[in-house]
UniProtKB/TrEMBL annotation:
Keywords: Isopeptide bond. It comes from the Eukaryota. CDD domains: Ubl_ubiquitin_like. The keyword DNA-binding does not apply. It comes from Gossypium tomentosum (Hawaiian cotton). The keyword Nucleotide-binding does not apply. GO terms for molecular function: mRNA binding. This is Ubiquitin-like domain-containing protein. It holds the Pfam family ubiquitin. Residues 18-69, 70-142, 143-210, 214-284 form the Ubiquitin-like domain.
Length: 354
C-alpha cells in the first residue's frame, strides 16, 4: 500500500533533528469595561495566565494601541436617551451612567461645540428632538500640544480639553507673538467657539496657525458663478489652478479681473484687498479670442465619433485659425475624447478659443 500524503516520510537515523518553534494563535473572549485602559488590559491578561509577562503590544483593526488609551476610544456608537425639555445635563449623565456603567466624573457632554454645565436644562440649550450630544471622556484633562506659527516657530502648550479654540489661540499668540490666522489640525480649520475635545486632539498633537479660509466668487465669461475656498496668502495663480480643477480651462487662457484691474499671477490676494465674498471675473487671456460655432456647420464630414483633436484640425482648415481649446458647457474638451463622449451632436454649439 502506498503511504498517504499526510504520512510522515522516513528520515534516516544519521540525519540530525533540529528544534522547530510553532507560533499558535488562539482567540479568547473576556469581559472588560469599555473604559478599561490598554495597560490594565495587558495586566489582566497576564494575571489570568492568558499571555506572558513579556507581551508588549496590542493591536485593533490594524492599529497599535497605546497603553494610556481606553478601549472605548476605539469605538464610536450612538446611545438613545429619552428625556424631557426640563431635564438637566446632570440627569442626562445619570441616564448614561445607568445604561453604560460609566462613572459621572469620567465624562462630559458637548453640544454644538460647547461644554455643558450640569445644572443647565435641555430647553435652555434649545436641544430638540433627535439632537446629537457628544460624550467626551475626561480621563486626561490636561494635554501637552504644540502650536506652529506662520513663521515656523513652535510653542509647547499645556491646555485643558475643555479650552475653546479661541482660548488656545490666545495663549499661543502671547508665546509666538502673532495674532493673524486661524488654528488648523490635520488640515481642518478649527472653529473658535468650539472646544478641543470636539476635534479629538490627542497628547503631543501639532496644531498650526495658518491664514483663515474664506469664500470668494468667480464669475465666468458666460455668467456662471463659481465658489472657491481661498486664503489671503494664496496667489492669483493658485486661484487659476482652482478654476482649472473645476472647469478644465487651461491656466494660460484665463485672465482674472477684480475692481476693473487685471490681476498678476504672482501676487497674493491680500495685495489686491480681496476679502470674504469678493467677486472676481474670469476673462480670456489678452492673446485669445473666442467664437461660437455649431458642430454641424464645421464640415459635412464631422460625426459624433470624431475626436476633439480632429475637430480642431477641421476648424483650422475651414477658418484658417489655430485652435487653442474647444469648450462645451464651460469645460475644455480633451483632445483624445470623441464628441459622443461629451454628449455632443451636430446641433450643439461649441466655444472655440483661438
Amino acid at each position: 500500500m502506498k503511504p498517504s500524503a499526510a504520512e510522515r516520510p522516513h528520515v534516516g537515523s544519521s540525519e540530525e533533528e533540529i528544534p522547530v518553534y510553532l507560533k499558535l494563535v488562539k482567540t479568547v473572549a473576556w469581559k472588560v469595561k469599555p473604559t478599561e485602559t490598554v495597560k490594565n488590559l495587558k495586566a489582566l491578561l497576564y494575571e489570568k495566565g492568558i499571555v506572558s509577562e513579556t507581551i508588549r503590544d496590542l493591536c485593533f483593526a490594524g492599529k497599535l494601541l497605546n497603553d494610556d488609551e481606553r478601549l472605548v476610544d476605539h469605538e464610536q456608537r450612538t446611545i438613545v436617551v429619552e428625556a424631557r425639555a426640563n431635564d438637566t445635563v446632570e440627569s442626562i449623565k445619570s441616564l448614561i451612567k445607568v445604561t453604560e456603567g460609566i462613572e459621572l466624573n469620567r465624562f462630559s457632554l458637548i453640544y454644538e461645540g460647547k461644554l455643558l454645565e450640569e445644572d443647565w436644562t435641555l430647553s435652555s440649550l434649545e436641544v430638540k428632538n433627535e439632537s446629537t450630544i457628544c460624550v467626551v471622556f475626561s480621563q486626561k484633562d490636561v494635554l501637552s500640544i504644540y502650536v506652529k506659527a506662520l513663521s515656523g516657530k513652535v510653542a509647547k502648550l499645556k491646555v485643558k480639553v475643555t479650552f475653546s479654540v479661541a482660548d488656545v489661540k490666545a495663549i499661543a499668540d502671547t508665546m509666538l507673538g502673532t495674532s493673524a490666522g486661524s488654528l488648523f489640525y490635520l488640515g481642518q480649520q478649527l472653529e473658535d467657539s468650539k472646544i478641543l475635545a470636539c476635534y479629538d486632539i490627542k497628547e503631543e498633537s501639532m496644531l498650526q496657525i495658518l491664514h483663515s479660509l474664506f469664500q470668494v466668487f468667480v464669475k465666468t465669461w458666460s455668467g456662471r458663478t463659481l465658489t472657491l475656498d481661498v486664503q489671503q496668502n494664496m496667489t492669483v495663480q493658485d486661484v487659476k489652478d482652482k478654476i482649472f480643477k473645476k472647469l478644465k480651462i487651461p491656466v494660460h487662457l484665463q485672465g482674472i479681473i477684480f475692481s476693473e484691474k487685471r490681476l498678476e499671477g504672482g501676487r497674493d490676494l491680500a495685495s489686491y484687498l480681496i476679502q470674504k465674498h469678493s467677486t472676481l471675473s474670469m476673462v480670456l487671456a489678452p492673446s485669445s479670442t473666442i467664437m461660437h460655432i455649431e458642430v454641424g456647420k464645421i464640415t459635412s464630414s464631422i460625426s459624433h465619433f470624431s475626436i476633439v483633436r480632429t475637430v480642431k484640425e477641421m476648424i483650422r482648415s475651414k477658418k484658417g485659425i489655430t485652435v487653442k481649446e474647444i469648450l462645451y458647457g464651460e469645460k475644455a474638451l480633451d483632445d483624445e475624447f470623441s464628441l459622443e463622449h461629451y454628449g455632443i451632436n451636430k446641433e450643439t454649439e461649441l466655444t472655440v478659443v483661438y
